[in-house]
Amino acid sequence: MCREMEMRLNFVNEAQFLLVSEASVADLNDRLKSKWHNGSCKRPTQVSPSRFRPNLVVSGSKPYDEDGWRSLKIGETNFTSLGGCNRCQMINLTSVGGTMQRSNEPLATLASYRRIKGKIYFGILLKSCDSIEEEACLRVGQEVVANID
Q1: Which of 54, 49, 32, 38 is nearest to 105 (CA)?
Q2: Residue 46: which domain range?
Q3: Does position 7 have pLDDT exceeding 60, yes or no?
């Protein structure tokens, strides 16, 4: 993945948009639950999509289908995939009762099956293909059409 130097970025590191799927989060939660049942976790950790700080959450796909998406259209807005999002320890922080709590999960579990060339990926980075002069509006429930070519 190459960082797109020409695109406008506000308060993000790599891309305009980060997309995760509910199915991928559910698969991760199943793995976390299994780890707890096997005794390798002290307490069960369950995560919501918000733990990954995405601005787009999709449903209706199989887990990790988004890894293969090269481009997609949400409503009338077109996006290009910039590749997977390299995850760091920030996803291990959670706010409970107004205090920050740290653990090694979910990053440790993701590392067990999502590591590629030393990096741990979850979700995909996107850039808008439409002109910044064009008005674009995304709405909950809009159809997502992915292109895997």
Answers
A1: 32
A2: 17-147
A3: no
